[in-house]
Amino acid sequence: MNNTQTIKAVAGQTNESIQTVESILSSYENYCNKNITRYSRKHLTAIVEFIANETQLPEATCSKVMIQFFDLVKNEIKGKFFK
């Protein structure tokens, strides 16, 4: 799944605009660049806080998008290894 497909899938699952999802995932990329060892779902609270501060979007929106993103990635990985 490429970047555009990922954004569209998460937007569809969360009922958020493509622009909102794109902004959140771009901010997540910035977070990952600064926190190279703290990028997984177990750091969701810190990730959401960073994204909300950077994008000025509500934490609830950021959390909803990131949860769907992590679920999508998990399902994509499972699909590739368990076909």
Low-confidence stretches: none
- Tally of separate helices: 4
* Structure summary, number of beta strands: 0
- Helix amount: over 70%
Structural class: mainly alpha
Q: How many angstroms does the end-to-end distance come to?
A: 15 Å
Q: What is the makeup of the main sheet?
A: none
Strand portion: under 5%
Mean pLDDT: 92
Q: Evaluate the radius of gyration.
A: 12 Å
Oligomeric description of these chains: single chain
Give the overall form: globular
Order of helices and strands: HHHH
Could you characterize what this model shows?
The chain has helices at residues 3-14, 18-34, 44-55, 59-81. The protein is mainly alpha-helical. The protein is built from 4 helices and no strands. Helix 1 (3-14) crosses helix 4 and helix 3 packs across helix 4. It is 77% helix and 0% strand. It starts with a helix and ends with a helix.
